[in-house]
Amino acid sequence: MKIRNLILALLIVLVTQPFNIANAGALYQDLAYLSGTNPDINLQIRKNDLELNLLKSANIRVRVKVNKLYTTNDSTASFKISMYDVSGPTREYISSQSLSLIRGVKGNRVLSMNAGNFTSSSKSLEFDLFDTQNNLINVYSGTVTATNLAFQASSGAGVTLGASCPAGTFGECQIDELFKRVSFVARRQRHASTRVVKSDNGLYQVTLPVPRQAFKFLAGNRVRAVNLGNITGNGGNTTTIAEVVDSLGIGVSAPVSAFLHVSAGNGIVPSLILNPGDLTINTPPNGSIEFNGDDLYITKNGVRTVVGSGAGTPGAQGPSGPSGPQGATGATGAQGPTGATGAQGPTGTINSSNGATIAGDVTIDGNLDVTGTITAGLIDAPTPSKVGTDFDVNGQTAIDVTGINYLKLTDSNTGTTDEIFTLTGGVTGQQVILHVQNAINMRVDNAATADAIQWGRGTAAGSTRNLQVTEAFEFIYDGNAWFLISRYIL
What we know:
Elements: H1 2-16, E1 28-30, E2 32-36, E3 43-46, E4 51-53, E5 59-65, E6 76-85, E7 92-102, E8 108-114, E9 122-130, E10 136-147, H2 172-181, E11 182-189, E12 193-198, E13 204-211, E14 225-227, E15 247-250, E16 260-262, E17 289-291, E18 296-300, E19 303-307, E20 391-392, E21 398-400, E22 406-410, E23 419-420, E24 422-424, E25 431-436, E26 441-443, E27 453-454, E28 464-466, E29 471-477, E30 482-489
Parallel strand pairs: 4-10, 11-13, 14-15, 15-16, 20-22, 21-24, 22-25, 23-26, 27-30
Antiparallel strand pairs: 1-3, 2-10, 3-5, 5-8, 6-7, 6-9, 7-12, 9-10, 12-13, 17-18, 18-19, 25-29, 26-28, 29-30
């Protein structure tokens, strides 16, 4: 009867006082988007709050569509909006509010935020919007004006809080100073919303929600999986789960595949302990498990039997289970003894496309043509082991002598005289002969710069040595720079 009367009253109100739903959106306007990762998310402010009457309230209401802000896997989580005053030289924190949501939520949410103390008739505000994983999504801006500044509530004057904690440390002193500046207030409200407001004297007030009844995001929902975690020191009290539970996990984060899912033992604590007690007088229901201090019993088909060996009548052995997967490969066995040495083979020749290794000395009577690279500790040969292709020094300041013992230098443009600064690609102990065919200069660096040319005593650092046409130079590399050891004019 009451419900019918309520419906009739609502119909009368709708008929006599029509409400245009389309005008609801006109109560808010978009704040200016400054920066962020998702400009499609609009943060709006109630138009009436753009001009605050501080005689009534210093709160403004902002609205945001929250379906794109839920980014965590938790069943419930909170997004946050923080507000800052940018009217002065710095960006000063005013207040913030966190609102808890349930996964899958859609539509708009409205947050009431304290605009702080007004020292002038207007404030330039910035708003930081965070998702449910505390990632900064967007930054917005807007301007709010205020009247009746003399009537705004003050958090008090004369509060002096000067921390005298040791520098470079963090301990009880800093914690004490923190809680001197923070007060906590419990307030009855409809939503699971936490507010933080900075007062005009630098103190902070944290408002914690106390529900008028169950918070809205719990209405109509039931818990399907519960994790009790590690509950210790409960003093023998009973932990009650008031919701309908499909799966209960103890010590596991995601209970699956069973109504009760218990965490594995860790080598010190077992997964499950049954305290010993008396067996029931009557046979318990099928599936009952009992422990009397000597044996573990299970009841099946109306018969209570002992699990495993021990006193009492053992139950019938069940059928064999399926074969398990193949085990891992065992360790490699010990190496067998060395076999007998075979007979000496015939004298061979070096002819291998895959390379050849020779132990001992090699004597070559004639020419040795090598198309690849010879790697050896010592090569005794009457000619250089590697002759480089003629090098055109035109426009060059460095010569690559990698693996080269002899190199002829030419200049395709004799109209200009080029200057060589460095020899690159050398290895310690490498000797190279540079045979100059045209007028070329060399830059001397006695400061031992890497790959630089060292000319000898009495030569100024950074000086230029003018070379004659058809002149030969021999250098040796010490691992860092090249040293002139001989010079000859041909």
